[in-house]
Amino acid sequence: MTTQLTYNYSAAEITSRCRQIIQLVSNDMKMFAKFGVTEKELDTLKKKIIDYENFPEDKIFADKVSAKTKVKAEKEELLRTEIRNFLLHISIVIIGKQEMKKYFKSQKITGIPTTALIEFGEKVVTVSKKFKSKLLNVGMNENDFESLKNNIKQTKTAVKELEQVRAERVKNTAKRHELGKQLYEKLVKFSSLGKNIWKGKDEEQYKNYLLYAEYYQKVKDKREQYIKEKKEKEANNLKDKK
User: Fold this and answer.
1) Residue 203, C-beta contacts closer than 8 angstroms, at least 6 positions apart
2) Distance from C-alpha of 8 to C-alpha of 182, rounded to nearest angstrom
3) The model's pTM
4) How confident is the model at residue 1, as a pLDDT?
5) CB proximity list for 118: less than 8 A, separation 6 or greater
6) Contact 158, 69 (CB under 8 A)
7) CB 154 within 8 A of CB 75
8) Tell me, what DSSP letter sits at residue 146?
9) Closest Cα partner for 150 from 222, 89, 78?
10) CA-CA distance, 107 to 111, in Å (whole number)?
């Protein structure tokens, strides 16, 4: 199951803020020690920051998925071409649409799912085997039969490999998000303790422990209050002039 993110930090922001918090806590360690915080806990956080930064980026896995998707599409197209070739030759040796329908309910293979395309290819292999001698007399050869079977096999492999890299990407994303979540949880813990330590004692020290979101919200609130007061002042000035 993919770990859901509970924060809006970018990777660079969360590691940067964690390093800032580590420095702040180190400076205030005597006070933090009263709450059970130790140097070992900070060292563990430092290691997790490095692990997070060294963790493979999603782009690596996204590129793998893109490459395997392209291979799968190419194999599908080759398989379609071969199936169409066989259907054409089978229609020559099997006279009449009704006869063809006995073996193929539909000959439409454009846009069908890969699994359905593979199943259709396997059906063609079975039918062509039954009419092999006749097909060999209308321009087909042994290589055509082997090529069809190989393309079915290669398409199956392409599907499997694509599923594998997609699964790897999901797994990587979950692990990366979990690491990020662990960093954020420590960030919240030290931020909360720091604010409690300095609240009502030192405003600047208190601000140092604010989470970015809280800090920006306070700036936004302060700006909105300023605009509100400015508008009220301007409105009062207009009244006075009247």
Assistant:
1) none
2) 14
3) 0.72
4) 41
5) 79, 152, 155, 156, 159
6) no
7) yes
8) H
9) 78
10) 12
* Tokens 């006995």 sit on residue: 102
Largest CA distance in the chain: 106
223, two tokens: 């700006």
Q: What is the DSSP letter of 214?
A: H
Look at residue 199 and give its three-state secondary structure.
Answer: coil
Residue carrying the six token digits 């398989």: 79
Predicted local distance difference test score (pLDDT) of residue 2: 43
Task: Report d(CA 204, CA 78) in Å as an integer.
Answer: 68
For 97, the enclosing helix (H) or strand (E) is helix 97-103
Which residue type, as a one-letter code, is found at position 217? Q
Place of tokens 């813990």: 189
Rounded to the nearest angstrom, the gap between the alpha carbon of residue 186 and the centroid of all alpha carbons in its chain is: 25
CA distance 10 to 122: 48
Quick: pLDDT tens for 93-114: 987 777 888 888 888 899 999 9
Close Cβ partners of 131 (under 8 Å, ≥ 6 residues apart)? 90, 93, 94
* Separation of alpha carbons 106 and 95, rounded Å: 16
Three-class DSSP labels, 14-79: HHHHHHHHHHHHHHCHHHHHCCCCCHHHHHHHHHHHHHHHHCCCHHHHHHHHHHHHHHHHHHHHHH
